[in-house]
Amino acid sequence: MADKTLFEKIADREIPADIVYEDDQCICFRDINPQAPVHLLIVPRKPITRISETTDHDANILGHLLLTANKVSKQEGFAESGFRTVINNGNDGGEEVPHLHLHILAGRKLNWPPG
Asked: Fewer CB in 10 Å around end: N or C, the chain?
């Protein structure tokens, strides 16, 4: 059996995290290296390596991640002021953990282009 990813260990409570939301499909917690005043990660419990490796069978979980971003933005109080969602893919895309996850950045004006 392959080693668990960092995010699987967080979801399984083997590593502590500041969890703000969870359900049977995903978990959302605060990033330990925040790039904005609010920086949350939404991670599917299903271990999917990256967005480029998803298939049509992953459509429901991908949609669920976005709906969870909406739910968490309201719960945490930044839905009205705005937020950014980001999914990194591969080395050039900034991926650091090989487990699909969605970043939510909020709490300040986010400029464009991002960098």
From this structure: N
